[in-house]
Amino acid sequence: MDFTNKHVIIVGGSQGIGLATANAFIQHGATVLITGRSPQTLQRAAEEINSPNLQIMAADTSNMNGIADLEKWVAERGKKVDVLYLNAAIGVYAAIQDVTEADFDAQFNTNVKGHFFTLQRLIPHLADGASVIFTSSRVASAAGVTSSIYSATKAALNKISDVAVNELADRRIRVNIVSPGPIQTPGLLSVAPKEVQGFLASRSALQRRGNANEVANTVLFLASDDAAYINGADIAIDGGSIQYMLK
Ligand SMILES: NC(=O)c1ccc[n+]([C@@H]2O[C@H](COP(=O)([O-])OP(=O)(O)OC[C@H]3O[C@@H](n4cnc5c(N)ncnc54)[C@H](OP(=O)(O)O)[C@@H]3O)[C@@H](O)[C@H]2O)c1
Question: Which residues are in coiled coils (predicted)?
Answer without folding.
Answer: none
